[in-house]
Amino acid sequence: LGTAQRLYKWTNHWLQDPEDGLYWDNVALNGEVDERKYTYNTALMIRANALFHTVTGDRAYLDEAQRVARAAEAHWLDQREEGIAIADGGRFAHMLLEAVLAVEEQDGDPRWSQIAQRTLRFVHAQVRDPHGRYANRWDRSQDAPLSRLTLLDGASAARAFWVLAGHTAARP
């Protein structure tokens, strides 16, 4: 636990944007911070907070998980008529859905699973090509057949559907 908390503090010190609470991508060996933001970096820290709350019972970790999840929602999620689009590739975005579900497991707020459900509705309806294959981006409609396929794009969508199904089945 002590090692995990030291790594958590280091990550927050070097990679958390103090303005919005989201996480930058990396620190180079020369100390320069790559300030690009991807859903997966933030997602992993949301989940870390949720896990620390589980292990320690410290409410501050849950508060931080909720705060960062709301910031991620404001930064990457786009509410549309067809559902919620995530402005990132599915190979990263599915981790954000898992993270918000981890927050719901801690706070019991169904809005987090509603976000996941609406996002996957969008992914299923809009992000597949006419042959049913999932595109990389989870914020763009895919009307034409994909010219390039990767297993990771389909696997990311499949994992997101699987995680949501398991989460929903586990709820009373």
How would you characterize the overall build of this protein?
By secondary structure, the chain is mainly alpha-helical. The chain has 6 helices and 4 strands. It has helices spanning 2-15, 39-56, 59-76, 90-107, 111-126, 151-170; strands spanning 24-27, 33-37, 77-80, 83-86. The strands form 2 sheets. A two-stranded antiparallel sheet has the order 1-2. The longest helix has 20 residues, at 151-170. The protein is globular. The mean pLDDT is 96.
Summarize the helices and strands and which ones pair or pack.
Elements: H1 2-15, E1 24-27, E2 33-37, H2 39-56, H3 59-76, E3 77-80, E4 83-86, H4 90-107, H5 111-126, H6 151-170
Antiparallel strand pairs: 1-2, 3-4
Helix pairs in contact: 2-3, 2-4, 3-4, 4-5, 4-6, 5-6
Strand order of the largest sheet: 1-2
Quickly count the helices.
6
Oligomer: single chain
Quick one: biggest sheet?
Answer: 2 strands, antiparallel
Helical fraction: 55-70%
Order of helices and strands: HEEHHEEHHH
Strand content is 5-15%
Going by helix content, strand content and strand pairing, the class is: mainly alpha
Cα-to-Cα separation, first versus last residue: 31 Å
Average pLDDT value? Answer: 96
**Poorly predicted ranges (pLDDT <50, ≥5 residues)?**
none
**Quick one: overall form?**
globular
Radius of gyration: 17 Å
| Number of E-state strands | 4
